[in-house]
Amino acid sequence: MLALRLILVLVIVASAGVIALGEMKLKPHLDELKAKEKKVTEDLKKEETERTKQETRAKGAEQERDAFKSDLDASKKSETDAIAAAKAEKDKTAAAQQATNLAKQETDAVKVRSGDYFALESLGLTPPIIRIIHTALPKATNELKVLKDEQRVLMTQHIKASGELQSFLNPKGAVSLPSLSGKVLAVDPKWDFVIMDMGANHGLLKNGELSISREGKLIARVKVSRVETDYAIANVMAGFKRSDIQEGDAVLTPSSVALPPQK
Q: Which of 118, 168, 230, 259 has its CA 20 to 30 A from that of 136?
């Protein structure tokens, strides 16, 4: 029993020695780990402090940025307001200038009308007389137009009668025509005659000779066989046809001098 206790004591002592020896061997490592832990803790604190400083600086920069943006927006608004005010002022100036020019034009017009009024008054054309003339003028103009129409009709009848007389006295000869120009309305190639947009009202006469051209080149020569008020029929003269006649070809008087009779 005593021996068992002695053995137990020895075991305990040996274990304590082993533990002490282990502690002696592990102590440097433990101290190194503690130092590293301390350094890491200090570094973390430094980083946290630096991060706090950076966050503070970032917030300050954001505040400065927001303040700058606010100032910039205010500056832009002020600039926009200034431009709008300048434009409004310019528009007012332009409107005032336009009103001034209009007033000047009206003043000049009044001066001209006043000058015209005094000039007419010096000729005895007072407003009552001008009103009388203004009332009578349309009637006189209409009467003049009627007289001119009658004169034109009488002239046409005279030319037609002269042509008929000349055709009667010289049935085979050509008659003199006034200066005329027209165009071909229709063509009959089988019977070699054309219809023209000229007639007695234009001074055209029976037996009158006309030239037909296209683009300035002579196509044929025709002799009037029948004359109506606004159109006439003419036959193509033998030996004077250089090309086929077409609708729209020009018709004109070759000469206002009487042509010699055909034999």
A: 118
Amino acid at 29: H
- Contacts of residues 152-157 at CB distance under 8 Å and 24 or more positions apart, as own/partner, are 156/200, 156/201, 156/203
75 domain residue, yes or no: yes
Query: Which phi and psi angles does 58 have, rounded to 5°?
Result: -65, -45
- State if pTM tops 0.85: no
Give pLDDT, residue 247: 94
pLDDT at 258: 37
Are residue 192 and residue 247 in the same domain, yes or no? yes
DSSP summary character for residue 173: S
Question: How many CB atoms sit inside 10 A of residue 60's CB?
Answer: 10
Are 163 and 209 contacting, i.e. CB atoms less than 8 angstroms apart?
no
Verify that 168 and 112 share a domain, yes or no. no
pLDDT tens digits for range 215-259: 989 999 999 999 998 999 999 998 888 989 999 999 998 854 333
CB 183 within 8 A of CB 249: yes
Picking from 108, 123, 138, the residue at the C-terminal end of a domain is: 123
Domain count, the chain: 2
Take residue 121 and report the two structure tokens written for it.
Answer: 């008054």
**At residue 263, does pLDDT exceed 90?**
no
Distance, CA of 110 to CA of 104 (rounded, Å) = 10
**Helix, strand, coil share of the chain (percent; to 5):** 65, 15, 20
Provide the residue range defining the domain that includes 201.
156-252
Concatenating the DSSP letter of every residue in 56-76 gives HHHHHHHHHHHHHHHHHHHHH
Tokens of 33: 């780990």
Residue 225 lies in a domain: yes
What residues have CB less than 8 Å from 233, skipping those under 6 apart?
193, 194, 195, 196, 224, 225, 226
